[in-house]
Amino acid sequence: MPQTAELISVIVPVYNVKDYLVQCVKSIINQTYKDIEILLIDDGSTDGSGKICDSLSNKFPIVKVIHKKNEGLGLTRNVGILNAKGKYVTFIDSDDYIAPSFIENLVLGLKKYNVDSIISGFKRIDSNNNIFYKEEYKMQVYEDDDVMDKVFTKMLGSLPEKHDSLKMSVWGNLYSMEIIKRYNLYFVSERKIISEDIIWNNDYFKKIRRVAILPFCDYYYRSNDNSLSLKYNPKRFQQVIYLYLILKQIIEEDHLPQNALLRTQKQFFVNIRSCISQLQNLFLKKHYQELLTIINDDTLQEVLSQYPIERLNTKQKIFLFLLKNRDAKLLFILNKSKLI
Asked: Average of pLDDT values for 203-225?
């Protein structure tokens, strides 16, 4: 542990995760870095998660619980920020977990490189804790204009021909509470803007001078088959359009590099693919009608007309070609067969 320990607040939003909550919290309790507080913010859970939070709090003094009405992830994190007493804060999703040295590595990086934030990689796991993907970053310190131009810009997405993005999520990163409180940085609701994390990261990284990206992957991110992102949401497509327009405005106002728009557009197409995948379990007529709505959208067609499709791999080219040519029938067949 670093000789001059700083209190780290670990904010854990909780909603209906009774099967994973204990594993998550115990992974935080078992950290090699001991100067921590754990804030479990129960967002109106209905599956008994709230009672598990209370039990953990009664057993472990560093665990504090706040129960609130259901408002979603972003506003739940805000309650954690308002109640955090640490000098720095990290966010952990309640169905994820962290390796024992996770927080110590963040703090060591913070001290060694004298930065305002730390970003680290992660491993994706399934419901049985099997690792099926690893995202590891190269060690690098950025300062001044490079914080936005080379770090935040990569959070927007990858370039057309390769995967070179940074995760846009806040989980697993370390942030300064002094900066958060000085500038009143709070999350918007994901019910208003999906990917609320990228909006918050934009607000935060505009205010800092130095950030370090560390090459360790001690955060285990769970991808569940029952995730809300896999279920049909009739508002999802318009939310994707709205997010793209908001990010386009941010790019213009913050004078980000030219490749920022390319990165945003590639992630936009990833989100469009997700919207189309959500249609797979709808009745045939509804599936086809919703698909027509998507491919005939003016914003989508405008982005398709600007994007260098020729720089993509073959599968991505085919998908965008079908979108651009409004080939609803073939898209419908491929989507129903789960081939896109």
From this structure: 95
